[in-house]
Amino acid sequence: MATIVEGSLRDKITMRMTPYVLLFPAIAIVAGVLGYAVVRGIIMSFFQIEVWEAEEPFVGLANYRTLFRSPGFQNSLLISLIFVGATIVIGLLMSLVHALVLNQIAFARSVFRAIALIPYLVSGVAAAVMWRFLFTGDAAIATQISAALGGSTVSWLADPDKALMVITMANVWFIAPFATLILLGGLQTIDPEMYAAAEIDGAGSWQKFVHITIPSIVPMLSLALMWLSFASFNMFDIILPLTGGGPGRSTEVLAVYMYQLAFRDLNYSTGAAVMIVILIINIALSAIFLRAAGRSRDDR
Amino acid sequence: MTDNSSINRPLGTRVVAWGVLLLITLWAVLPILWSLSASFKTPLTLYTGGFLPDDPTFDNYRRVLTSDGFPNYMMNSLFLALVSTAITLFVSVLAAYGFARYAFRWRHILLLFILIPRILPRASLIIPLYDLVESLNLLDTYTVLIITYTATAVPMATWILIGFFQAVPKELEEAAAIDGASIWQRIWKVVVPISLPGMVTAGILSLREAWNEFPFVLAFTTSSDMRTLPYQLFLMRDSMGITDWPLINAFTITTIVPILFLYLLFERQIVNGLTSGAVK
Domain of A214? Predict the structure, then answer.
Protein backbone atom coordinates (compact mmCIF):
# COMPACT_ATOMS: atom_id res chain seq x y z
CA MET A 1 0.00 0.00 0.00
CA ALA A 2 2.66 2.44 1.09
CA THR A 3 4.78 1.67 -1.95
CA ILE A 4 1.85 2.30 -4.25
CA VAL A 5 1.25 5.69 -2.68
CA GLU A 6 4.94 6.43 -2.85
CA GLY A 7 5.07 5.31 -6.46
CA SER A 8 2.14 7.40 -7.51
CA LEU A 9 3.56 10.35 -5.65
CA ARG A 10 6.83 9.97 -7.48
CA ASP A 11 4.93 9.61 -10.73
CA LYS A 12 3.01 12.73 -9.90
CA ILE A 13 6.17 14.69 -9.26
CA THR A 14 7.72 13.33 -12.44
CA MET A 15 4.58 14.27 -14.36
CA ARG A 16 4.63 17.76 -12.90
CA MET A 17 8.29 18.29 -13.58
CA THR A 18 8.31 16.92 -17.13
CA PRO A 19 7.18 20.06 -19.00
CA TYR A 20 9.66 22.22 -17.12
CA VAL A 21 12.51 19.85 -17.91
CA LEU A 22 11.48 19.81 -21.59
CA LEU A 23 11.29 23.57 -21.72
CA PHE A 24 14.47 24.23 -19.80
CA PRO A 25 17.06 24.20 -22.64
CA ALA A 26 15.00 26.46 -24.88
CA ILE A 27 14.11 28.94 -22.15
CA ALA A 28 17.68 28.91 -20.83
CA ILE A 29 19.25 29.80 -24.17
CA VAL A 30 16.60 32.37 -25.10
CA ALA A 31 16.62 34.01 -21.66
CA GLY A 32 20.38 33.68 -21.34
CA VAL A 33 21.11 35.50 -24.57
CA LEU A 34 18.11 37.67 -25.40
CA GLY A 35 16.88 38.24 -21.84
CA TYR A 36 20.38 39.06 -20.67
CA ALA A 37 20.86 41.49 -23.54
CA VAL A 38 17.69 43.40 -22.72
CA VAL A 39 18.40 43.66 -18.99
CA ARG A 40 22.02 44.56 -19.56
CA GLY A 41 21.00 47.12 -22.20
CA ILE A 42 18.65 48.82 -19.75
CA ILE A 43 21.37 48.95 -17.10
CA MET A 44 23.99 50.21 -19.54
CA SER A 45 21.76 53.06 -20.60
CA PHE A 46 21.78 54.43 -17.03
CA PHE A 47 25.57 54.45 -16.67
CA GLN A 48 28.35 56.41 -18.26
CA ILE A 49 30.50 53.79 -19.94
CA GLU A 50 33.75 54.99 -21.46
CA VAL A 51 35.99 52.55 -23.25
CA TRP A 52 39.21 53.91 -21.76
CA GLU A 53 37.87 54.57 -18.26
CA ALA A 54 37.59 51.88 -15.60
CA GLU A 55 34.90 53.73 -13.69
CA GLU A 56 31.33 53.52 -14.84
CA PRO A 57 29.35 56.05 -12.81
CA PHE A 58 25.57 55.93 -12.56
CA VAL A 59 24.15 58.88 -14.46
CA GLY A 60 20.41 58.24 -14.32
CA LEU A 61 18.58 59.57 -17.34
CA ALA A 62 21.49 61.73 -18.53
CA ASN A 63 22.14 59.49 -21.55
CA TYR A 64 18.53 59.80 -22.61
CA ARG A 65 18.60 63.58 -22.17
CA THR A 66 21.73 63.83 -24.30
CA LEU A 67 20.13 61.56 -26.84
CA PHE A 68 16.88 63.43 -27.25
CA ARG A 69 18.75 66.71 -27.63
CA SER A 70 21.16 65.36 -30.22
CA PRO A 71 20.39 66.36 -33.83
CA GLY A 72 21.72 62.99 -35.01
CA PHE A 73 19.06 61.15 -33.00
CA GLN A 74 16.26 63.49 -34.03
CA ASN A 75 17.30 63.05 -37.65
CA SER A 76 17.34 59.25 -37.32
CA LEU A 77 13.97 59.17 -35.62
CA LEU A 78 12.48 61.21 -38.46
CA ILE A 79 14.18 59.09 -41.14
CA SER A 80 12.93 55.94 -39.42
CA LEU A 81 9.37 57.23 -39.28
CA ILE A 82 9.39 58.13 -42.99
CA PHE A 83 11.04 54.84 -43.91
CA VAL A 84 8.65 52.73 -41.81
CA GLY A 85 5.57 54.72 -42.79
CA ALA A 86 6.31 54.50 -46.51
CA THR A 87 7.19 50.80 -46.26
CA ILE A 88 3.97 50.00 -44.40
CA VAL A 89 1.74 51.81 -46.88
CA ILE A 90 3.43 50.53 -50.04
CA GLY A 91 4.23 47.09 -48.60
CA LEU A 92 0.73 46.42 -47.29
CA LEU A 93 -0.97 47.53 -50.50
CA MET A 94 1.42 45.51 -52.60
CA SER A 95 1.21 42.36 -50.53
CA LEU A 96 -2.58 42.58 -50.33
CA VAL A 97 -2.86 42.95 -54.10
CA HIS A 98 -0.31 40.18 -54.57
CA ALA A 99 -2.17 37.83 -52.22
CA LEU A 100 -5.52 38.63 -53.84
CA VAL A 101 -4.33 37.87 -57.37
CA LEU A 102 -2.50 34.74 -56.21
CA ASN A 103 -5.74 33.61 -54.62
CA GLN A 104 -7.65 34.37 -57.83
CA ILE A 105 -5.69 32.36 -60.32
CA ALA A 106 -6.06 28.65 -60.75
CA PHE A 107 -3.35 27.99 -63.32
CA ALA A 108 0.25 27.57 -62.10
CA ARG A 109 -0.70 29.05 -58.76
CA SER A 110 1.89 27.10 -56.79
CA VAL A 111 4.64 28.23 -59.16
CA PHE A 112 3.77 31.89 -58.68
CA ARG A 113 3.36 31.35 -54.95
CA ALA A 114 6.83 29.81 -54.81
CA ILE A 115 8.38 32.73 -56.71
CA ALA A 116 6.55 35.24 -54.51
CA LEU A 117 8.51 34.24 -51.42
CA ILE A 118 11.96 34.18 -53.03
CA PRO A 119 13.11 37.63 -51.78
CA TYR A 120 12.44 36.43 -48.21
CA LEU A 121 15.12 33.73 -48.61
CA VAL A 122 17.81 36.05 -49.91
CA SER A 123 20.13 37.50 -47.28
CA GLY A 124 19.75 41.16 -46.42
CA VAL A 125 23.31 41.82 -47.49
CA ALA A 126 22.81 40.10 -50.86
CA ALA A 127 19.55 42.01 -51.39
CA ALA A 128 21.29 45.27 -50.54
CA VAL A 129 24.17 44.55 -52.91
CA MET A 130 21.78 43.70 -55.75
CA TRP A 131 19.87 46.93 -55.19
CA ARG A 132 23.11 48.86 -54.96
CA PHE A 133 24.06 47.46 -58.32
CA LEU A 134 20.75 48.68 -59.77
CA PHE A 135 21.38 52.21 -58.54
CA THR A 136 25.10 52.90 -58.13
CA GLY A 137 27.10 55.02 -60.51
CA ASP A 138 26.42 56.95 -63.69
CA ALA A 139 26.07 53.79 -65.73
CA ALA A 140 23.64 52.03 -63.36
CA ILE A 141 20.49 50.84 -65.01
CA ALA A 142 18.33 53.20 -62.92
CA THR A 143 20.47 56.21 -63.83
CA GLN A 144 20.34 55.25 -67.51
CA ILE A 145 16.56 54.93 -67.42
CA SER A 146 16.14 58.22 -65.62
CA ALA A 147 18.49 59.91 -68.11
CA ALA A 148 16.63 58.40 -71.07
CA LEU A 149 13.39 59.79 -69.65
CA GLY A 150 14.97 63.20 -69.49
CA GLY A 151 15.55 63.11 -65.74
CA SER A 152 18.68 63.67 -63.72
CA THR A 153 21.82 61.74 -64.54
CA VAL A 154 23.07 61.93 -60.97
CA SER A 155 23.39 58.55 -59.27
CA TRP A 156 20.32 57.91 -57.12
CA LEU A 157 22.40 56.91 -54.13
CA ALA A 158 24.21 60.27 -54.19
CA ASP A 159 20.96 62.19 -53.77
CA PRO A 160 19.58 62.25 -50.18
CA ASP A 161 15.89 62.07 -51.09
CA LYS A 162 16.35 59.48 -53.81
CA ALA A 163 18.61 57.38 -51.58
CA LEU A 164 15.81 57.22 -49.03
CA MET A 165 13.45 56.14 -51.80
CA VAL A 166 15.88 53.44 -52.87
CA ILE A 167 16.26 51.95 -49.40
CA THR A 168 12.47 52.03 -49.00
CA MET A 169 11.97 50.21 -52.31
CA ALA A 170 14.65 47.67 -51.47
CA ASN A 171 13.04 47.17 -48.08
CA VAL A 172 9.59 46.63 -49.57
CA TRP A 173 11.09 44.17 -52.04
CA PHE A 174 12.76 42.31 -49.19
CA ILE A 175 10.01 42.13 -46.55
CA ALA A 176 6.66 42.41 -48.38
CA PRO A 177 6.76 38.77 -49.63
CA PHE A 178 6.33 37.44 -46.11
CA ALA A 179 3.32 39.73 -45.62
CA THR A 180 1.91 38.34 -48.87
CA LEU A 181 2.23 34.85 -47.47
CA ILE A 182 0.44 35.82 -44.23
CA LEU A 183 -2.42 37.44 -46.17
CA LEU A 184 -2.67 34.54 -48.62
CA GLY A 185 -3.00 32.21 -45.64
CA GLY A 186 -5.91 34.35 -44.46
CA LEU A 187 -7.62 34.47 -47.84
CA GLN A 188 -7.49 30.69 -48.13
CA THR A 189 -9.50 30.26 -44.93
CA ILE A 190 -12.48 32.22 -46.28
CA ASP A 191 -15.40 29.94 -46.98
CA PRO A 192 -16.33 30.22 -50.71
CA GLU A 193 -19.97 29.73 -49.75
CA MET A 194 -19.93 33.18 -48.19
CA TYR A 195 -19.23 34.65 -51.61
CA ALA A 196 -21.86 32.46 -53.20
CA ALA A 197 -24.43 33.63 -50.66
CA ALA A 198 -23.49 37.26 -51.26
CA GLU A 199 -23.82 36.78 -55.01
CA ILE A 200 -27.33 35.46 -54.56
CA ASP A 201 -28.07 38.65 -52.65
CA GLY A 202 -26.77 40.58 -55.66
CA ALA A 203 -23.49 41.82 -54.20
CA GLY A 204 -20.88 43.10 -56.64
CA SER A 205 -17.15 42.40 -56.55
CA TRP A 206 -16.36 45.54 -54.58
CA GLN A 207 -19.10 44.88 -52.04
CA LYS A 208 -17.89 41.31 -51.59
CA PHE A 209 -14.37 42.61 -51.10
CA VAL A 210 -15.37 45.21 -48.52
CA HIS A 211 -17.97 43.16 -46.65
CA ILE A 212 -16.53 39.65 -46.80
CA THR A 213 -12.86 39.58 -47.78
CA ILE A 214 -11.53 42.40 -45.62
CA PRO A 215 -13.48 41.57 -42.43
CA SER A 216 -12.46 37.91 -42.73
CA ILE A 217 -8.76 38.69 -42.83
CA VAL A 218 -8.57 41.43 -40.21
CA PRO A 219 -6.35 39.32 -37.92
CA MET A 220 -4.01 38.52 -40.81
CA LEU A 221 -3.98 42.16 -41.89
CA SER A 222 -2.85 43.22 -38.45
CA LEU A 223 -0.28 40.41 -38.40
CA ALA A 224 1.05 41.58 -41.76
CA LEU A 225 1.15 45.17 -40.47
CA MET A 226 3.06 44.00 -37.44
CA TRP A 227 5.58 42.15 -39.56
CA LEU A 228 6.08 45.08 -41.93
CA SER A 229 6.49 47.65 -39.20
CA PHE A 230 8.80 45.57 -36.98
CA ALA A 231 10.92 44.37 -39.86
CA SER A 232 11.38 47.86 -41.26
CA PHE A 233 11.69 49.61 -37.94
CA ASN A 234 14.54 47.29 -37.03
CA MET A 235 16.03 47.02 -40.50
CA PHE A 236 19.79 47.02 -40.46
CA ASP A 237 20.99 44.36 -42.92
CA ILE A 238 19.64 46.19 -45.96
CA ILE A 239 20.68 49.73 -45.11
CA LEU A 240 24.27 49.37 -43.95
CA PRO A 241 25.46 47.60 -47.12
CA LEU A 242 23.24 49.64 -49.45
CA THR A 243 23.97 53.21 -48.35
CA GLY A 244 25.84 52.99 -45.04
CA GLY A 245 23.38 55.58 -43.77
CA GLY A 246 24.39 58.15 -46.36
CA PRO A 247 24.70 60.28 -48.33
CA GLY A 248 25.33 62.44 -45.29
CA ARG A 249 22.87 61.06 -42.77
CA SER A 250 19.94 60.90 -45.14
CA THR A 251 19.30 57.16 -44.70
CA GLU A 252 20.57 56.72 -41.16
CA VAL A 253 17.59 54.97 -39.55
CA LEU A 254 17.63 54.29 -35.80
CA ALA A 255 19.20 50.83 -36.02
CA VAL A 256 22.08 52.12 -38.15
CA TYR A 257 22.46 55.22 -35.96
CA MET A 258 22.69 52.97 -32.90
CA TYR A 259 25.32 50.77 -34.53
CA GLN A 260 27.45 53.75 -35.60
CA LEU A 261 27.12 55.33 -32.16
CA ALA A 262 28.37 52.21 -30.41
CA PHE A 263 30.88 50.72 -32.82
CA ARG A 264 32.20 53.75 -34.68
CA ASP A 265 32.00 56.43 -31.97
CA LEU A 266 32.48 53.86 -29.16
CA ASN A 267 29.67 55.51 -27.23
CA TYR A 268 28.15 52.37 -25.72
CA SER A 269 25.89 53.90 -23.10
CA THR A 270 24.12 56.25 -25.51
CA GLY A 271 23.95 53.38 -28.00
CA ALA A 272 22.25 51.32 -25.29
CA ALA A 273 19.81 54.18 -24.70
CA VAL A 274 18.92 54.10 -28.42
CA MET A 275 18.40 50.34 -28.09
CA ILE A 276 15.92 50.90 -25.25
CA VAL A 277 14.10 53.58 -27.26
CA ILE A 278 13.81 51.11 -30.16
CA LEU A 279 12.50 48.41 -27.81
CA ILE A 280 9.93 50.74 -26.27
CA ILE A 281 8.67 51.77 -29.69
CA ASN A 282 8.45 48.08 -30.65
CA ILE A 283 6.47 47.24 -27.52
CA ALA A 284 4.15 50.20 -28.09
CA LEU A 285 3.61 49.15 -31.70
CA SER A 286 2.76 45.58 -30.77
CA ALA A 287 0.34 46.76 -28.08
CA ILE A 288 -1.42 48.94 -30.64
CA PHE A 289 -1.61 46.17 -33.22
CA LEU A 290 -2.80 43.54 -30.77
CA ARG A 291 -5.50 45.87 -29.54
CA ALA A 292 -6.47 46.67 -33.13
CA ALA A 293 -6.70 42.98 -33.89
CA GLY A 294 -9.31 42.77 -31.16
CA ARG A 295 -7.76 39.97 -29.21
CA SER A 296 -4.49 38.27 -28.70
CA ARG A 297 -4.31 35.17 -30.84
CA ASP A 298 -1.16 33.82 -29.25
CA ASP A 299 -2.38 30.75 -27.49
CA ARG A 300 -5.25 28.75 -28.74
CA MET B 1 -10.60 25.58 -51.82
CA THR B 2 -11.41 28.92 -53.36
CA ASP B 3 -10.26 27.86 -56.82
CA ASN B 4 -13.77 27.27 -58.05
CA SER B 5 -14.75 30.88 -57.64
CA SER B 6 -12.15 32.04 -60.12
CA ILE B 7 -13.43 29.95 -63.00
CA ASN B 8 -16.73 31.72 -63.46
CA ARG B 9 -15.25 35.20 -63.20
CA PRO B 10 -15.57 37.56 -66.17
CA LEU B 11 -12.69 37.52 -68.63
CA GLY B 12 -11.80 41.17 -67.94
CA THR B 13 -11.19 40.53 -64.25
CA ARG B 14 -9.02 37.56 -65.04
CA VAL B 15 -6.91 39.51 -67.53
CA VAL B 16 -6.35 42.28 -64.98
CA ALA B 17 -5.49 39.75 -62.27
CA TRP B 18 -2.94 38.07 -64.52
CA GLY B 19 -1.46 41.37 -65.57
CA VAL B 20 -1.00 42.46 -61.97
CA LEU B 21 0.40 39.09 -60.97
CA LEU B 22 2.97 39.09 -63.76
CA LEU B 23 3.99 42.63 -62.87
CA ILE B 24 4.53 41.86 -59.17
CA THR B 25 6.28 38.58 -59.99
CA LEU B 26 8.61 40.47 -62.31
CA TRP B 27 9.33 42.97 -59.53
CA ALA B 28 10.22 40.10 -57.19
CA VAL B 29 12.70 38.45 -59.54
CA LEU B 30 14.08 41.40 -61.49
CA PRO B 31 16.92 42.41 -59.12
CA ILE B 32 18.05 38.78 -58.94
CA LEU B 33 17.88 38.27 -62.70
CA TRP B 34 19.76 41.52 -63.32
CA SER B 35 22.46 40.44 -60.91
CA LEU B 36 22.57 36.97 -62.48
CA SER B 37 22.93 38.49 -65.93
CA ALA B 38 25.76 40.80 -64.83
CA SER B 39 27.58 37.88 -63.26
CA PHE B 40 28.14 36.46 -66.76
CA LYS B 41 29.50 39.72 -68.19
CA THR B 42 32.83 41.51 -68.01
CA PRO B 43 33.34 45.03 -66.63
CA LEU B 44 33.52 46.28 -70.23
CA THR B 45 30.28 44.68 -71.39
CA LEU B 46 28.46 45.25 -68.09
CA TYR B 47 25.93 47.73 -69.40
CA THR B 48 25.48 46.28 -72.85
CA GLY B 49 23.37 43.48 -74.20
CA GLY B 50 20.46 43.80 -71.74
CA PHE B 51 19.52 40.66 -69.86
CA LEU B 52 21.20 38.20 -72.15
CA PRO B 53 24.97 38.72 -72.21
CA ASP B 54 26.36 38.78 -75.75
CA ASP B 55 29.34 36.67 -74.89
CA PRO B 56 28.64 35.01 -71.53
CA THR B 57 31.68 34.19 -69.44
CA PHE B 58 32.06 31.93 -66.42
CA ASP B 59 35.25 33.71 -65.50
CA ASN B 60 33.63 35.63 -62.62
CA TYR B 61 32.46 32.41 -60.97
CA ARG B 62 35.87 30.87 -61.47
CA ARG B 63 37.43 33.89 -59.77
CA VAL B 64 34.94 33.76 -56.90
CA LEU B 65 35.44 30.06 -56.27
CA THR B 66 39.24 30.22 -56.49
CA SER B 67 39.65 33.49 -54.60
CA ASP B 68 41.67 33.56 -51.39
CA GLY B 69 39.55 32.78 -48.41
CA PHE B 70 36.42 31.75 -50.31
CA PRO B 71 36.55 28.08 -49.22
CA ASN B 72 37.09 29.31 -45.69
CA TYR B 73 34.10 31.70 -45.74
CA MET B 74 31.94 29.02 -47.32
CA MET B 75 32.92 26.48 -44.67
CA ASN B 76 32.29 29.01 -41.89
CA SER B 77 28.82 29.76 -43.22
CA LEU B 78 28.02 26.10 -43.72
CA PHE B 79 29.38 25.00 -40.35
CA LEU B 80 27.59 27.74 -38.41
CA ALA B 81 24.32 27.13 -40.23
CA LEU B 82 24.37 23.35 -39.76
CA VAL B 83 25.46 23.33 -36.12
CA SER B 84 23.11 26.08 -34.98
CA THR B 85 20.23 24.47 -36.87
CA ALA B 86 20.90 21.05 -35.31
CA ILE B 87 20.95 22.52 -31.80
CA THR B 88 17.91 24.69 -32.56
CA LEU B 89 15.89 21.70 -33.75
CA PHE B 90 16.87 19.57 -30.76
CA VAL B 91 16.04 22.26 -28.21
CA SER B 92 12.87 23.36 -30.03
CA VAL B 93 11.47 19.84 -30.36
CA LEU B 94 11.64 19.38 -26.58
CA ALA B 95 10.15 22.79 -25.85
CA ALA B 96 7.41 22.48 -28.47
CA TYR B 97 6.46 19.06 -27.10
CA GLY B 98 6.26 20.52 -23.60
CA PHE B 99 4.00 23.34 -24.78
CA ALA B 100 1.88 21.15 -27.04
CA ARG B 101 1.20 18.30 -24.62
CA TYR B 102 1.20 19.69 -21.09
CA ALA B 103 -0.96 22.10 -19.18
CA PHE B 104 1.12 23.54 -16.39
CA ARG B 105 1.15 26.52 -14.14
CA TRP B 106 3.72 28.77 -15.81
CA ARG B 107 2.76 27.87 -19.36
CA HIS B 108 1.57 31.31 -20.39
CA ILE B 109 4.51 33.11 -18.82
CA LEU B 110 6.98 30.74 -20.43
CA LEU B 111 5.23 31.03 -23.77
CA LEU B 112 6.16 34.70 -23.69
CA PHE B 113 9.80 33.70 -23.97
CA ILE B 114 8.90 32.23 -27.32
CA LEU B 115 6.78 35.17 -28.44
CA ILE B 116 8.59 38.27 -27.17
CA PRO B 117 11.90 37.61 -28.99
CA ARG B 118 10.09 38.24 -32.24
CA ILE B 119 10.04 41.93 -31.42
CA LEU B 120 13.65 42.06 -30.26
CA PRO B 121 15.70 43.37 -33.14
CA ARG B 122 18.93 41.50 -33.66
CA ALA B 123 20.94 44.65 -34.34
CA SER B 124 19.90 46.16 -31.02
CA LEU B 125 21.17 43.14 -29.08
CA ILE B 126 24.75 43.54 -30.20
CA ILE B 127 25.65 46.41 -27.89
CA PRO B 128 24.89 44.71 -24.56
CA LEU B 129 26.04 41.32 -25.87
CA TYR B 130 29.33 42.71 -27.16
CA ASP B 131 30.23 43.65 -23.61
CA LEU B 132 29.51 40.15 -22.31
CA VAL B 133 31.18 38.40 -25.22
CA GLU B 134 34.29 40.50 -24.78
CA SER B 135 34.54 39.85 -21.06
CA LEU B 136 34.12 36.10 -21.63
CA ASN B 137 36.89 36.19 -24.25
CA LEU B 138 34.51 34.86 -26.86
CA LEU B 139 35.09 37.44 -29.57
CA ASP B 140 36.18 35.81 -32.82
CA THR B 141 34.92 32.36 -31.85
CA TYR B 142 32.42 29.97 -33.39
CA THR B 143 30.94 29.49 -29.92
CA VAL B 144 29.48 32.98 -29.64
CA LEU B 145 28.00 32.83 -33.14
CA ILE B 146 26.48 29.39 -32.60
CA ILE B 147 24.95 30.43 -29.28
CA THR B 148 23.51 33.69 -30.61
CA TYR B 149 22.25 32.11 -33.85
CA THR B 150 20.58 29.36 -31.87
CA ALA B 151 19.01 31.80 -29.42
CA THR B 152 17.46 33.83 -32.22
CA ALA B 153 16.26 30.76 -34.13
CA VAL B 154 14.71 28.78 -31.25
CA PRO B 155 11.60 30.96 -30.74
CA MET B 156 10.45 30.72 -34.37
CA ALA B 157 11.25 26.99 -34.63
CA THR B 158 9.44 26.21 -31.37
CA TRP B 159 6.43 28.21 -32.48
CA ILE B 160 6.19 26.34 -35.78
CA LEU B 161 6.64 22.93 -34.12
CA ILE B 162 4.00 23.55 -31.43
CA GLY B 163 1.37 23.75 -34.16
CA PHE B 164 2.54 20.55 -35.79
CA PHE B 165 2.84 18.61 -32.52
CA GLN B 166 -0.64 19.61 -31.43
CA ALA B 167 -1.96 18.04 -34.62
CA VAL B 168 -0.44 14.64 -33.79
CA PRO B 169 -3.23 12.40 -32.42
CA LYS B 170 -2.72 11.61 -28.72
CA GLU B 171 -3.91 8.03 -29.36
CA LEU B 172 -0.74 7.24 -31.29
CA GLU B 173 1.35 8.19 -28.31
CA GLU B 174 -0.91 6.30 -25.90
CA ALA B 175 -0.53 3.19 -28.00
CA ALA B 176 3.24 3.59 -27.95
CA ALA B 177 3.15 4.18 -24.18
CA ILE B 178 1.24 0.93 -23.67
CA ASP B 179 3.98 -0.82 -25.62
CA GLY B 180 6.40 0.58 -23.05
CA ALA B 181 7.80 3.55 -24.95
CA SER B 182 9.31 6.20 -22.73
CA ILE B 183 8.51 9.87 -23.23
CA TRP B 184 11.89 10.27 -24.96
CA GLN B 185 11.03 7.51 -27.44
CA ARG B 186 7.54 8.86 -27.97
CA ILE B 187 8.95 12.28 -28.87
CA TRP B 188 11.64 11.11 -31.30
CA LYS B 189 10.03 7.94 -32.66
CA VAL B 190 6.37 8.91 -32.84
CA VAL B 191 5.79 12.66 -32.76
CA VAL B 192 8.80 13.90 -34.72
CA PRO B 193 8.51 11.47 -37.67
CA ILE B 194 4.83 12.34 -38.09
CA SER B 195 5.67 16.05 -37.96
CA LEU B 196 8.36 15.84 -40.61
CA PRO B 197 6.95 18.75 -42.69
CA GLY B 198 7.16 20.89 -39.56
CA MET B 199 10.73 19.76 -38.93
CA VAL B 200 11.65 20.63 -42.52
CA THR B 201 10.05 24.06 -42.22
CA ALA B 202 11.66 24.84 -38.87
CA GLY B 203 14.99 23.45 -40.07
CA ILE B 204 15.17 25.41 -43.30
CA LEU B 205 14.10 28.62 -41.59
CA SER B 206 16.86 28.15 -39.01
CA LEU B 207 19.34 27.46 -41.80
CA ARG B 208 18.18 30.61 -43.53
CA GLU B 209 18.62 32.68 -40.37
CA ALA B 210 22.16 31.50 -39.81
CA TRP B 211 23.23 31.46 -43.46
CA ASN B 212 22.01 35.01 -43.99
CA GLU B 213 22.96 36.45 -40.59
CA PHE B 214 24.84 39.73 -40.62
CA PRO B 215 24.83 41.95 -37.48
CA PHE B 216 26.26 39.37 -35.07
CA VAL B 217 29.10 38.26 -37.31
CA LEU B 218 29.83 41.91 -38.07
CA ALA B 219 30.03 42.87 -34.40
CA PHE B 220 31.51 39.77 -32.79
CA THR B 221 34.28 38.86 -35.24
CA THR B 222 37.24 40.79 -36.58
CA SER B 223 39.59 38.15 -37.94
CA SER B 224 39.22 37.22 -41.59
CA ASP B 225 39.32 33.53 -40.62
CA MET B 226 35.91 33.92 -39.01
CA ARG B 227 34.18 35.69 -41.89
CA THR B 228 30.98 34.27 -43.31
CA LEU B 229 29.75 34.75 -46.87
CA PRO B 230 27.45 37.71 -46.13
CA TYR B 231 30.21 39.48 -44.21
CA GLN B 232 32.66 39.01 -47.08
CA LEU B 233 30.04 40.24 -49.54
CA PHE B 234 29.54 43.32 -47.38
CA LEU B 235 33.28 44.04 -47.45
CA MET B 236 33.53 43.43 -51.20
CA ARG B 237 30.71 45.79 -52.06
CA ASP B 238 32.67 48.85 -51.09
CA SER B 239 36.19 48.13 -52.16
CA MET B 240 38.39 51.09 -52.98
CA GLY B 241 38.80 52.09 -56.60
CA ILE B 242 36.67 50.73 -59.39
CA THR B 243 34.01 48.31 -58.23
CA ASP B 244 34.21 45.01 -60.05
CA TRP B 245 30.46 44.51 -60.38
CA PRO B 246 30.54 41.29 -62.44
CA LEU B 247 32.66 39.66 -59.73
CA ILE B 248 30.48 40.99 -56.90
CA ASN B 249 27.34 39.80 -58.65
CA ALA B 250 28.85 36.36 -59.16
CA PHE B 251 29.62 36.30 -55.44
CA THR B 252 26.09 37.43 -54.56
CA ILE B 253 24.54 34.71 -56.72
CA THR B 254 26.89 32.10 -55.24
CA THR B 255 25.79 32.98 -51.70
CA ILE B 256 22.05 32.90 -52.39
CA VAL B 257 21.91 29.80 -54.59
CA PRO B 258 22.25 27.16 -51.82
CA ILE B 259 19.41 28.51 -49.70
CA LEU B 260 17.18 29.15 -52.74
CA PHE B 261 17.83 25.60 -53.90
CA LEU B 262 16.77 24.20 -50.51
CA TYR B 263 13.73 26.45 -50.48
CA LEU B 264 12.55 25.45 -53.95
CA LEU B 265 13.10 21.79 -53.06
CA PHE B 266 10.80 22.01 -50.03
CA GLU B 267 8.70 24.99 -51.07
CA ARG B 268 5.36 23.30 -50.46
CA GLN B 269 6.19 22.24 -46.90
CA ILE B 270 7.71 25.61 -46.04
CA VAL B 271 4.88 27.70 -47.39
CA ASN B 272 2.25 25.46 -45.80
CA GLY B 273 4.21 25.33 -42.56
CA LEU B 274 4.58 29.10 -42.44
CA THR B 275 1.00 29.75 -43.44
CA SER B 276 -0.44 27.44 -40.81
CA GLY B 277 1.91 28.96 -38.26
CA ALA B 278 0.98 32.49 -39.21
CA VAL B 279 -2.73 31.89 -39.35
CA LYS B 280 -2.88 30.24 -35.96
Answer: 71-292
Residues of chain B neighbouring A221 (CB-CB closer than 8 A): none
Q: Are A85 and B173 in contact (CB under 8 A)?
A: no
Under DSSP, the state recorded for A209 is: I
ipTM surpassing 0.95, yes or no? no
How many independent structural domains does chain B possess? 2
Within a domain: A50: no
Q: CA triplet A224, A230, A234: central angle to 5 degrees?
A: 150
Nearest C-alpha of chain A: how many angstroms from B208?
A: 7
Determine, yes or no, domain membership for A4.
Answer: no
Where does A105-217 have alpha helices with state H?
109-116, 118-121, 124-135, 141-148, 160-188, 192-200, 205-208, 214-216
Cis peptide before B193 (omega within 30 of 0): no
Q: What is the CATH number of the domain that holds B227?
A: 1.10.3720.10
- Cβ of B122 within 8 Å of Cβ of A234? The answer is yes
pLDDT by residue (tens digit) across A210-241? 888 888 888 888 889 888 988 888 899 999 98
User: What residues in B contact A297, CB-CB < 8 Å?
Assistant: 280
Looking at the DSSP bridge assignments, the partners of residue A47 are A58
